[in-house]
Design goal:
Helix content is 81%, strand content 0%. It is built from eleven helices and no strands. The longest helix is centred in the last third of the chain and has 35 residues. The chain is globular and about 70 Å long. The chain starts with a helix and ends with a helix.
Length: 250
C-alpha cells in the first residue's frame, strides 16, 4: 500500500512538471499530460498497442535472461578462480568501455533483421554490467568465510553454494535492476531500425508522422515496461535472496 502511495505521489509530481513544460512550450511539441494519458488509455484498449508492447516485452525479457545465464556464472568464475580472472579480465576491461551499440549494423548483418539481433545486442550491453558487478562482488568476499567452511570440513561444493553464490547473487540482482533502464533504452534504439513492431517502432513511426500524442502513447508504454521490469527484478531478488531482507523484517 505504501509503495502504491509513493508511486501515486511521484506520478502526480511528474504530471505537474509535464503540465508546466507543456504550457511553456505552447502545447505543440509537448502535448498536455491529460490529453496524452487519455490517448494512452484509448490505445491500451486496442490489440495493436498490445502487439507492440508484447514484442518489446519479449525482446527485453529474452535479452535479460540471456545476459543473466551467461554473465552471472562467468562473473562467479572470474571472481573465484584467479587463473581464469587473469586470462579474461584484460579482455573484459579493454572491451567494456567500447560502445557496443555501434555493433548493431554488424549484428543485423550476421543475425538478420529479426528478434535475434536485437536480443543479442541488448544482452551484450546488459551482460557486461552483470559480469563486472558479480566478479567484483565475489572478489570482495572476506577470506574468513572460506576459512570457516574449510575448518568444518567443507569442500568445493560447500564453498560454491554456501559462500560464493549467496555472496554473488545480491550483486547480480543489483546490476540486473539497475540494468533495466539501460535495457529499455537500448530496446528503443534497436527497435528504431529494420522492424515494424515494438514500442520503439511505435514512437519513431508517430514521430515521423508528427503525431506527438501517439508518440507519447509509445513513450508511456515504454516507461511502464521499464517500471514493470524493475519491480519484477526487485521482487525476484526478494524471493531468491531472502536472507538480505530478514533484518528489515525483524
Amino acid at each position: 500500500m505504501k509503495g502504491m502511495l509513493r508511486y501515486a505521489v511521484v506520478l502526480l509530481v511528474l504530471g505537474l512538471l509535464w503540465k508546466g513544460a507543456a504550457i511553456a512550450l505552447g502545447g505543440r511539441i509537448l502535448p498536455d499530460p491529460l490529453e496524452a494519458l487519455s490517448a494512452f488509455v484509448q490505445a491500451a484498449g486496442t490489440a495493436a498497442f498490445w502487439k507492440h508492447f508484447g514484442a518489446s516485452a519479449w525482446r527485453v525479457l529474452a535479452a535479460m535472461g540471456l545476459a543473466w545465464i551467461t554473465a552471472f556464472p562467468l562473473g562467479l568464475l572470474m571472481g573465484s578462480v584467479r587463473r581464469v580472472d587473469a586470462m579474461l579480465a584484460p579482455f573484459v576491461f579493454l572491451t567494456y568501455p567500447i560502445p557496443k551499440i555501434v555493433l548493431l549494423p554488424v549484428f543485423l548483418l550476421v543475425l538478420g533483421l529479426g528478434d535475434a539481433s536485437k536480443i543479442v545486442m541488448i544482452s551484450l550491453i546488459l551482460g557486461y554490467q552483470i559480469l563486472v558487478t558479480t566478479r567484483d562482488g565475489v572478489r570482495a568476499i572476506h577470506p574468513r568465510y572460506f576459512d570457516s567452511i574449510r575448518s568444518i570440513g567443507g569442500g568445493k561444493r560447500h564453498l560454491l553454494f554456501d559462500v560464493l553464490v549467496p555472496a554473488a547473487l545480491p550483486h547480480g540482482f543489483t546490476s540486473l535492476r539497475l540494468g533495466t533502464g539501460v535495457a529499455v533504452a537500448v530496446l528503443f534504439f534497436v527497435e528504431s531500425f529494420a522492424t515494424t513492431s515494438g514500442l520503439g517502432y511505435l514512437i519513431m513511426d508517430a514521430w515521423g508522422a508528427m503525431d506527438y500524442v501517439r508518440m507519447f502513447t509509445g513513450i508511456i508504454g515504454m516507461s511502464l515496461l521499464g517500471a514493470a521490469l524493475y519491480e519484477a527484478a526487485d521482487c525476484l531478488e526478494k524471493k531468491v535472496c531472502r536472507w538480505m531482507f530478514l533484518r528489515k523484517k525483524s
